[in-house]
Every structure is written in C-alpha cells, then in structure tokens.
Amino acid sequence: MLADRLSLLVSTVYAAPGSFGALQLLAAAVAFSVQIYCDFSAYSDMALGAAEVMGFRLMENFRTPYFSRSIGEFWRRWHISLSFWFRDYLYIPLGENRRGTARKYGNVLIVFAVSGLWHGAGLTFVVWGALHGLYNLLSRLTRTPRGWVTNKLRLAKIPLIHGFFQRLYTFFIVTFAWVFFRSDSLQSALLFLSRVPVAFGATLFDATARMKALNDIGFSANNGIALLACIAGMFLLEAAQRRRPLPESFAKVPLVLRWAGYYVLLLCILLFGVFDSTPFIYGQF
C-alpha cells in the first residue's frame, strides 16, 4: 500500500535525475527511504507471521530503525539478522577489537564495504556500504567531543528536542546514502546529488512552482495527502510499538473491535493498494 505507491514516484525521478528540480529530487530521496523500509519490513513481517502460524519463532529483523538517535543504533535496528551474520562470520574472524585501534577501524570499513557487495556487485552498493562504514567511524571518533558539547549546552535537560534533532540527523545521513543504493550508476547518483543545490532556488519561494513540481512526479494534492497520512499513521504505530509490542496491545482489545480493525485495514489495502507485478526490492539480493 505504501512501498509500491511510493515506487511510482521514486522510479520516475531516479530514471532521469537530470530532468528534475531540487524539490522533486528531495521528495524522491525521502520517498525511497520510506519505500525500502516498508518493502523490506513488510517482507520480513510476513515471514515472521507465516513462521509463527507453523509454530516457529524467527528473529525480528526491524525495530523501528528510523527512530534511531545514532548510526550505531540504526544498525542495531535495521536488518538485524544480516548485521549479526556479518558480525559473527566476518568482523569477529577479522580480529574484532583485539588488534589495535587502526585495525579495528579498518575491520569496520571492510565489513560495511562487503555488506555493500552483498547487495550487488555495482560500485553504487560499495559506496553505500563504505559511507555507512565512514559514518560509524566518525560516530566513534567524535563520541567524546559530542558528549562534551552535550554537557556544555545542557542538552540533557531538553531530551525531546535533543532526541528529535538526533533522529533527524540520523535519518538525513541514512537517506543520503540511500541515493547511491538506489541509483543505476555512480554517475547518476552524483548527478542526483549535484542537482539539489543547483536547482533549489527555482522553486524555493514560488508555491505554485512547488506544487507543479510535485504534481509532475505523481505527487498530486489528493495522492500526496493520502500518502502522507498513511506514512504518519505507520510512524505513529511504530512509536506505539516502542512502548508496547502491538500483538500485546491487540490482545487486550475486545474481540469485536479487533476484527473491526482487521476489516478496516483490509479495506484500506483494497482501496489504496497497488496491485501490479512489482517485486520486493530485497527479493533480488
């Protein structure tokens, strides 16, 4: 309902990034961040549900990754099974943290570069993995000065604001890396990124131009409102999930209301879903 609908917008822009303005490129970048999460998370959730029906309990693969306050936390919440696999079969055999600081940081870069290759042999995937390796290294290297700044500015006294900007920053750098992951080539990714500052001024103060730019990539007023409402609803559910697992919450709802909720969800899927042959993104990896 979300991933396939967003893919229409994403595919249009990424097919020819040089033909679009900054607002369209930014919308496509954010849309792909949401698309790949919805696509892969739903794929994993269906596998978890099917396994539980047969009496098996599989590892949870996603734990609200876009609520992460750091890149390290993001990778503890994103594709957890793959992260554990690389830790156990690559990072630990390479020496983990036992062979000096330089070797430890080198191992981190190797693991993330290989994780990029796991997704595909293209240079874009290697750059995506290397970027995340660099993010992790910078996060570790700046931990002490960041803690000092936090104490000096007394950010701990405004946890909601501090946490919001930490999550926003993490989402931004993750979305930046996704541009390389989604692009067909390194040249296309660089063109995509270079167009954003160049074309930004054209629609900055022109509301009509902004609306036309979004409408040109299928983000019309009605479609946009429906998409934003669905995305907001998804993240609200995820926020609730952080406090209490949804299965536990649903179990306490009266049976009649629970089934009414199921039928409402089914109706939303039938009304707003995209029923074509679009494959799961991660089905190719």
TrEMBL record:
GO cellular component: plasma membrane
GO molecular function: acyltransferase activity
Membrane-spanning parts: 20-38, 108-131, 164-181, 188-205, 217-239, 260-282
Protein name, UniProt field: Peptidoglycan O-acetyltransferase
InterPro entries: Ac/AlaTfrase_AlgI/DltB (IPR024194), AlgI (IPR028362), MB_O-acyltransferase (IPR051085), MBOAT_fam (IPR004299)
The keyword Cell inner membrane is annotated on this UniProt entry: no
Keyword line: Cell membrane, Membrane, Transmembrane, Transmembrane helix
Membrane topology per record: Multi-pass membrane protein
Subcellular location(s) of the protein: Cell membrane
Family (UniProt): Belongs to the membrane-bound acyltransferase family.
Keyword presence, Cell membrane: yes
GO biological process: alginic acid biosynthetic process
Main location: membrane
